[in-house]
Amino acid sequence: MKLLSHSVRWLSAALLAVPVIASAAPERIVVVDGALTEIVYALGQEDKLVGVDTTSVYPAAATQLPQVGYKRALSAEGTLSLAPDLVIASEDAGPEGILGQIESAGVTVASVTAKASVDAVGEKVKRVAALLEQPDAGEALWQSIQADIETVQASQLRLSKPVKVLFILNASGGRNLVVGGANTHADAIIKLAGAENAVQGIEGYKPVTTEALVAMAPDVVLMMKRNEHSMPAAELFAIPGLDRVPAADNQRLVTMDGMLLLGFGPRIGQAMKQLHEALYPAVVAAQ
């Protein structure tokens, strides 16, 4: 009996002496979504990136990393060829089932919200920071983002009337213009900048008729900057329908970098500020 008791005590002591090995922090990461890639860089963890998707265009260094394709048309084989130990992807990554295939190969896959809101940005930052075991850096980043947002919100208190903004996703050839309606990233950023979406009664991104454009009566047209392919204001406002809206009177066309404008990543405060200043130059100048 004494021998058994001694053995139990020895075994207990031995077990207590064995160090607890925590799961290793990820060292090879593939990120699928431009906003999430920006967060990794903002957290100073870019040295762990081994691959990104094609929407990861900021900062410029991200474009030099191996690419796994467009985030909604991923290849499991291409992603796995980079030997990641963690894949961080937005919840709208695809095609359907692709993340499950990657996970079944033994790779940890983490899905992150793709919603367009200030709260969603906070959720993205904190989620990525937790995955990379950088909670303090994540909290500091989120506080910095909130400070930028609050600055823009303070300026909005001086607005007497919101301008009506029409976001055009595609104006190629001047026909079947595709505009941003409710529940889009465009709708969200327009409202966050203190303006009103001129598109009402439309869900998502949809083509509209000439008559519909006239009825929308936007004060400003908003588009993504496409470098040498950007459409000049004079050409845009010559399109039937757009030639009869208030924005045409002063050729009010605002263009912004697409990832900044619609990314809803760590630069959300910068996006709100830039758009707000472009929409309300007189209000900003009077501050």
TrEMBL record:
Fe/B12 periplasmic-binding domain mapped to chain residues: 28-283
Top-rank taxon: Bacteria
Pfam families with a match to the protein in the record: Peripla_BP_2
Coiled coil: none
Keyword Signal recorded: yes
Signal peptide start and end residues: 1-24
Keywords recorded for this protein, A-Z: Signal
Keyword RNA-binding: no
UniProt xrefs under SUPFAM superfamilies: Helical backbone' metal receptor
PANTHER family: HEMIN-BINDING PERIPLASMIC PROTEIN HMUT, VITAMIN B12-BINDING PROTEIN
Protein name: Hemin ABC transporter substrate-binding protein
Annotated source species: Neptunomonas marina
